[in-house]
C-alpha cells in the first residue's frame, strides 16, 4: 500500500473519532507547547544577557582581586591607584584603563533625596565602557588629580533629584558632602539585574576621600583586539600579583561572563524543558493506549484488509501512521500554542522570549517521534493479528 | 484442461487451546478445478469454515500439503500469503465485511490498493465491477445506505475486482432473505459460467444443491463427495 493511501486511511480513522482524537492530542499539545514556550523564554533571556554584556563595551577585560567562581566570597581589595602605573605599562595606553570604587550612598538635592550607587572613576571611563552623555560634560583628568567634587548623574538619579529641571551646575550632596553636577547620562536601563541609571560618577580620588580609603575595587581594560585579550589579562594579573603577593587576581572577559551565565541559564532551561517533556511522555502513553483501543475496535477491519491482500507491514504502517498523525497534529497545535504563549510573555512581562526555528523543528520532530515510539507496539500488534481470528471477531 | 486452482492433500489443522490439541481437520484431500462450482456442506463444528480458511490462504495447515495457484503455502511468508490471497482468491463472507465509512466504490477498490494500482484505475475498475453486479447506480453509497442484498453484491464485486481464479463464499446467503439469497446465488452461478471457480460453504442443502458438486463434512473429515449435478 502506498504511503499517501495509508495517510488517507489514517486521517479518516482519526476523523471518525474526532473527540477521542482531540482528547488524546491534549497531552502532546500541552507538552510541545510547554517545551516551545520554555525554550523561547530561555533563548530570549540568553540573548538579552548577551546584548547586555556586549553592550558594556567591546573587548572588555575586568581585573578584580580574588577568584571569580560562582559562590566564592568577595575579597577585600588591596588595589590602589598606585598600582595603575604598572597596569599602564603593561597595557601601553592610559586611555584604555578604567577603575572603580563603588558605594551605595544617600544623595540629596534641596528637599529631594534618594539612594544612588556612587562610582569613583577615572576620566577614561567613557572610552572603556559604552556610556553616552545626555547633557553637560564628563569628568576631566584635572577633576581626578585634584579630587574635585563634581558628579555626572545617571538618568534615573537626575530625574529623581531634579525632575524636569536642568541639573547642570546645581549642587547635590552625597553622604552629606557637596558635589556640583556637571553632566547627566543617557538612560541605559537595567543591565544584568543592575539599574545602570541609578549611578553617579565622581572622580575616584573624591570618592576615596569621601569613603576614607585608598583602595579601588577593580580595574577595567578595553583590549585592542579580541584575539590577544586573554594574554593581556594574564600579563596584567602577573604584574599585579608581583606587587601584591598575598592576593589572587582574576581577569575576566565578557566571553567568560557569558559562558558562566550561559551555563547557568542552560541548566535552568534544561531542567524546565525536561519537566515539560514529562508531559509529552505522558501524552505519548495516552496515544499508545488509544491506539491499542483503536486496534481492538477495528479487528474486523484488519481481518478484512488482510483477507483481501494486506500484508502485516501494510496494516502496521496504517496504524503507525495513525499514531504519528495524531501526535504530529498535536505537535503543530502545541507549537502554535507555545509560540502564542511565548509572544504573550514577551509582550506583557519583562521576561523576553525568542522563537527559534530549530526549537520548532525539534518540537515537531519530537512529537512525531513520540507517535512512532508509542505507536509501534499497537501497530505491530495489529500487523500480527491472525486474519482468521480477526475475521471471526465481528 | 487447465491446472487445478487449489489442491489439498491429507490436510490437517489442529488448534492448540491452552495445551490441549483440538483437531479441526483430520486429513482432508480435495481438488478445486479451474471453473469448478463446489459446495462444502456440514453442520457447525464440522470443520467446513476451517477448510475454507485454508483454501483461501488465510490459514496454514498443520499437516499435509496445500497448493493454491500452484504454490505450496508451507513455503510462503505471511507477506507472500497476503499477496497470494490478493491475486488468486476472492472472499465473500456471511456478514459482508464492508468498511462502514467507505463508499461502495472504495470498498470494491480496496484489494487493488494492496496491489499498488493507481487510484484512478482503481476507481474505474471498481465502477466496472459494480456495474457487473448490477449496482452501477450505487457507486457512492455507504454500506448503511444499501440493502443486505446490495451489500452482498458489493462484497462480491470486491471479491472479483482482482480477477481471482477462485471465489470462496462462506454462507453468502446466511444473512439474506430467500428471494435476495436466490438472486445472489444466481449471480454466483453466472460468474462461474464466465470461468471463475466458486467454492460455496453452507449448511443449507438447497443452496448447496445449486453447485455442480457437493462435499459433506463431519468431524473434520470429508464423509462423502458425491458427484452431483451436471459436469460443467
Key phrases:
heterodimer, A: 394 residues, alpha+beta, 2 domains, six-stranded mixed barrel, two-stranded antiparallel sheet, 57% helix, elongated, B: 232 residues, alpha/beta, Rossmann fold, six-stranded mixed beta sheet, four-stranded antiparallel beta sheet, 7 helices, 33% helix, disordered C terminus
What does this protein structure show overall?
The complex is a heterodimer of chains A (394) and B (232). Chain A is of the alpha+beta class. Chain A folds into two domains: 3-52 and 259-392, no CATH class; 76-247, no CATH class. Helices cover 57% and strands 18% of the residues of chain A. Chain A has 13 helices and twelve strands. In chain A, strands 2-3-10-5-7-6 form a six-stranded mixed beta barrel. A two-stranded antiparallel sheet of chain A has the order 8-9. The two termini of chain A are 24 Å apart. In chain A, 42% of the residues are buried. Chain B has one domain: Rossmann fold (3-Layer(aba) Sandwich). Chain B has helices spanning 48-55, 78-88, 104-113, 119-132, 148-160, 178-193, 205-208; strands at 6-17, 20-32, 37-42, 63-68, 71-72, 89-92, 166-170, 197-202, 213-218, 221-224. In chain B, the strands form two sheets. In chain B, strands 6-7-8-3-9-10 form a six-stranded mixed beta sheet, with helices on both faces. A four-stranded antiparallel beta sheet of chain B has the order 2-1-4-5, with helices on one face. Chain B is an alpha/beta fold and 232 residues long. Chain B contains seven helices and ten strands. In chain B, a hairpin with a 2-residue loop joins strand 9 and strand 10. The chains are: A alpha+beta (394), B alpha/beta (232). The interface between A and B is medium-sized, with 24 and 26 residues.
Amino acid at each position: 500500500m502506498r504511503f499517501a493511501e495509508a495517510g488517507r486511511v489514517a486521517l479518516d480513522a482519526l476523523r471518525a473519532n474526532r473527540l477521542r482524537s482531540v482528547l488524546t492530542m491534549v497531552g502532546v499539545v500541552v507538552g510541545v507547547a510547554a517545551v516551545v514556550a520554555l525554550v523561547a523564554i530561555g533563548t530570549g533571556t540568553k540573548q538579552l544577557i548577551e546584548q547586555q554584556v556586549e553592550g558594556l563595551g567591546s573587548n572588555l577585560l575586568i581585573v578584580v582581586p580574588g577568584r571569580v567562581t560562582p559562590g566564592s566570597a568577595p575579597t577585600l581589595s588591596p588595589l590602589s591607584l598606585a598600582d595603575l602605573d604598572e597596569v599602564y605599562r603593561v597595557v601601553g595606553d592610559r586611555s584604555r584603563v578604567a577603575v572603580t570604587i563603588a558605594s551605595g550612598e544617600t544623595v540629596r538635592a534641596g528637599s529631594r533625596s534618594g539612594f544612588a550607587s556612587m562610582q569613583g572613576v577615572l576620566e577614561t571611563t567613557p572610552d572603556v565602557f559604552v556610556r553616552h552623555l545626555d547633557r553637560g560634560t564628563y569628568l576631566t583628568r584635572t577633576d581626578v588629580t585634584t579630587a574635585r567634587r563634581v558628579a555626572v548623574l545617571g538618568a534615573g538619579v537626575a530625574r529623581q533629584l531634579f525632575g524636569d529641571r536642568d541639573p547642570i551646575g546645581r549642587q547635590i550632596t552625597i553622604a552629606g558632602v557637596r558635589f556640583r553636577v556637571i553632566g547627566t547620562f543617557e538612560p541605559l536601563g537595567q543591565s544584568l539585574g543592575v539599574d545602570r541609571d541609578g549611578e553617579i560618577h565622581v572622580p575616584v580620588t573624591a570618592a576615596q576621600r569621601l569613603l576614607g580609603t585608598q583602595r579601588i575595587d577593580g580595574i577595567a581594560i578595553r583590549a585592542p583586539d579580541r584575539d590577544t585579550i586573554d594574554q593581556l589579562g594574564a600579563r596584567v594579573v602577573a604584574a599585579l600579583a608581583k606587587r601584591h603577593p598575598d592576593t589572587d587576581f582574576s581577569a575576566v572577559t565578557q566571553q567568560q561572563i557569558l559562558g558562566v551565565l550561559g551555563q547557568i541559564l542552560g541548566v535552568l532551561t534544561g531542567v524546565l524543558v525536561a519537566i515539560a517533556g514529562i508531559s509529552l511522555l505522558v501524552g505519548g502513553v495516552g496515544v499508545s493506549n488509544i491506539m491499542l483501543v483503536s486496534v481492538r475496535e477495528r479487528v474486523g477491519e484488519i481481518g478484512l484488509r488482510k483477507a483481501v491482500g494486506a500484508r502485516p507491514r501494510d496494516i502496521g504502517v496504517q496504524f503507525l501512521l495513525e499514531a504519528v498523525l495524531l501526535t504530529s497534529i498535536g505537535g503543530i497545535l502545541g507549537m502554535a500554542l507555545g509560540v502564542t504563549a511565548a509572544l504573550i510573555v514577551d509582550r506583557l512581562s519583562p521576561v523576553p522570549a525568542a522563537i527559534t526555528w530549530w526549537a520548532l523543528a525539534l518540537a515537531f520532530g519530537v512529537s512525531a517521534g513520540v507517535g512512532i515510539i508509542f505507536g509501534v507496539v499497537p501497530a505491530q500488534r495489529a500487523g500480527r493479528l491472525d486474519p482468521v481470528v480477526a475475521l471471526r471477531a465481528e | 484442461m487447465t491446472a487445478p486452482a487449489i489442491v489439498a492433500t491429507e490436510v490437517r489443522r489442529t488448534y492448540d487451546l491452552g495445551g490441549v490439541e483440538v483437531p479441526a481437520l483430520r486429513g482432508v484431500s480435495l481438488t478445486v478445478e479451474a471453473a469448478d462450482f463446489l459446495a462444502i456442506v456440514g453442520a457447525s463444528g464440522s470443520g467446513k469454515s476451517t477448510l475454507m480458511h485454508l483454501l483461501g490462504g488465510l490459514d496454514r495447515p498443520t499437516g499435509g500439503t496445500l497448493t493454491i495457484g500452484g504454490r505450496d503455502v508451507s513455503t510462503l511468508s505471511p507477506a507472500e500469503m497476503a499477496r497470494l490471497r490478493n491475486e488468486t482468491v476472492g472472499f465473500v463472507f456471511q456478514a459482508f465485511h464492508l468498511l462502514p465509512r467507505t463508499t461502495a466504490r472504495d470498498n470494491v477498490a480496496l484489494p487493488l490498493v494492496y496491489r499498488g494500482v493507481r487510484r484512478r484505475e482503481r476507481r474505474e475498475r471498481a465502477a466496472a465491477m459494480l456495474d457487473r453486479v448490477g449496482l452501477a447506480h450505487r457507486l457512492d453509497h455507504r454500506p448503511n445506505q444499501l440493502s443486505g442484498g446490495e451489500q452482498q453484491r458489493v462484497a462480491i464485486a470486491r471479491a472479483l475486482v482482482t480477477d481471482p481464479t477462485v471465489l470462496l463464499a462462506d454462507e453468502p446467503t446466511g444473512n439474506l432473505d430467500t428471494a435476495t439469497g436466490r438472486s445472489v446465488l444466481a449471480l454466483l452461478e453466472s460468474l462461474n459460467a464466465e470461468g471463475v471457480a466458486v467454492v460455496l460453504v453452507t449448511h443449507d442443502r438447497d443452496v448447496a444443491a445449486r453447485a455442480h458438486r457437493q462435499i459433506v463434512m463431519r468431524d473434520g473429515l470429508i464423509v462423502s463427495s458425491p458427484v452431483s449435478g451436471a459436469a460443467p
